[in-house]
Structure formats: structure tokens, C-alpha cells
Structures
1.
Amino acid sequence: QVQLVESGGGLVQAGGSLRLSCAASGRTFGSYAMGWFRQAPGKEREFVAAINWSGGITYYADSVKGRFTISRDNAKNTVYLQMNSLKPEDTAVYYCAARISGRYSSRSDEYSYWGQGTQVTVSS
């Protein structure tokens, strides 16, 4: 069992930055791939970014490529999402998720564990 707790959300102006963190419990964190997803009001949950177990491979949605960076620190059981050049359309609840396979995926149904989410609001 893995428990995930996100933090770092908030209100920011367009063009600003935020860094989300996701702290994981359990000794097997280092073997899991991790992902970030988001869900805006009235919309389906969508993939944002993913990272493999070692941190050596990352993958991004086209909408955030070049602006967001996913990283992880296995010694701290934490995955991060650095978000720069934020836009109003980035406003959503952001969720981190853990995939038992160490290989990254953009499919939400391939992740077994989810955090409770953190709100990110970008004002224009």
C-alpha cells in the first residue's frame, strides 16, 4: 500500500511559477513510476507528466512541454512538478499517482495509487 500526499498548490498570476510536491509512504517508492494528472471543473482528468522509477526518463503532455518539469528524489520518497509560465488554462486540481510498474505511462487506469489532489489556480 502506498499513500500519496500532494502539496504546493495555490493561486498564482499568469506567467508565474509553482512547484508541487508529492510525498509517498512505503519503502518501495523507488521502484514505482510516478505521474501527475489534472482535472479542471467540468472536464475529464488528463495526463500532465510522468517519470520512470529511476528518474532517467520523463514524458509530458504537449500542452505543458517546455513549461513543466517532473523530477523525483527517491531518497526523500518525493516527486515534484515544477510549473513555469503558468496559464489560466492550467487551472485544475493536480493529482500525483504511482504505478507499480517502474515504466512511465500516460494512462490514468495504469496507476494504482492516487493522492487527494491540490488546487492550482492561475489568474489572468
Note: The chain has a mean pLDDT of 96.
2.
Amino acid sequence: QVQLVESGGGLVQAGGSLRLSCAGSGRTFSSYAMAWFRQAPGKEREFVATIDRIGGITDYADSVKGRFTISRDNAKNTLYLQMNSLKPEDTAVYYCAATRTVYTSKSDLYDYWGQGTQVTVSS
């Protein structure tokens, strides 16, 4: 089992940057593929980015490709999401998630979720 805690959200102007972090508990963090999802008010949760267990393979939603970068540091049990060139439509609660399966964009395959961190991008 792993517990996840996100941090790093906040208010930023369009065009700005933020880096989200997701701290995982336990010794098995490297056993999980990880991902970031987000949910805007009145909308369904959507996939943002995913990364494999060792950090060698990543995948992104088309809406964030070229602007966001997912990475992990297994020695620190931490997942990151570097967000650049932020847009108002990136405003959402961002969640990190862990899965025992291979990395995937399918939210129903993730076993553990954090509580979320709010990102607000003003125009």
C-alpha cells in the first residue's frame, strides 16, 4: 500500500509555471507506475501524464504535450509535474495516482490516489 500527498499548487498568471510534487509513503514507491490526473469544476476527471516505474517511459495528454513534464525520483519517493506555459484551461484540482499495473492513462486502473492540489491560472 502507498499513501500519496500532493503539494505545489497555487495561483499563477497565464504563461507562468508551477511544479507539483507528490510524496509517497512506504518502501515500495518504485513498484508503482504513476500518473497525474486533473478535474475542473463541472467536468470529469481527465488524464494528464503517466510515467513507468523507473521513469524511463512517459506519456501525455495531447492538451499538455510540450508544456508539461512528468518525472520521478524513486530515492525520494516523489513524483513531479513541471507545468510551463500555463493556460486558464489548465485550472483544476490535480491528483497523483499509483498503479501496480503498467503505466496507463486509464484512471480506473489506478489503485491509490492523493487528496489533490488546486491549480488556478488567471488570464
Note: The first strand starts at residue 4 and ends at 7.
3.
Amino acid sequence: QVQLVESGGGLVQPGGSLRLSCAASGTIFSINTMGWYRQAPGNQRELVATITSGGSAYYADSVKGRFTISRDNAKNRVYLQVNSLKPEDTAVYFCNADVLSVYYWGQGTQVTVSS
């Protein structure tokens, strides 16, 4: 089995930045695509960004230019640098990972953007 643990969330003022981290552990031989999703209260979970094992990234239009996804394959980690944060970015951020075509999810880390 594989476990994912997110960290790095917190309370930040509008315009601030955070770096979210997701660590994968367990029975891992290789990880294909990794991604970040978010879910605000009352909303559906939405895709934020993905990154392939080769480093190709995809971003939702709402975060393009502000967020950057990256990964460290040797450490089985994926990161999300979130800049120029807006109140509408407030959500629980979840990472996921494709391990041998099985998708795993973490429990999420809370990002709150407020004055």
C-alpha cells in the first residue's frame, strides 16, 4: 500500500505564498502522474495541477501563472508553490499519485487566505 501525507498549508493574507508538500511512502516502485486537487466547503473537488514522471505540468486556468507544481522523484515528493493567493483559493488541498495504475489520495492540508 501507499500513503500520501500533505503538509505546508496554513493561514495567509491575500497576496501571500505557501509551498505545499506531499510525501509518498510505502510500497512504491515508481510513480507516474502526481497531482494536486482542492475542495472548498460546499464545492466539488477540483483539479489544480498535475505533473508527469517526465516533468510535464498542467494547470487549471484559475491558478495558471500563480501556482507551480514540481516533483522530486528520488524522494517521492510532489510540491505546489502557491503565490499571489486570493481568498477564493481557500480550500483543503489534496495530492494524489498514480502508482502502478492505482490512484492514492492524501488527507489534505488546509489553505486559508484571509485578511
Note: The chain is about 0% helix and 55% strand.
